[in-house]
Amino acid sequence: MRTNNPSGILSISQNDPDYPPRLWDLFDPPKLLYIYGESRLLRLPMIAIVGSRIPSQEGIKNAFQFSQALSKAGFLVISGMARGIDGAAHCGALRLGKAHSTLAVCGTGLDIVYPPEHASLAQDIGQQGLLVSELAPGIGPRAHHFPRRNRLIAALCLGVVVIEAAEKSGSLITARLANELGREIFALPGSINQPLSRGCHQLIQQGAKLVQNPNDVLDELHF
Question: How many whole angstroms separate alpha carbon 214 and alpha carbon 165?
Answer without folding.
Answer: 18
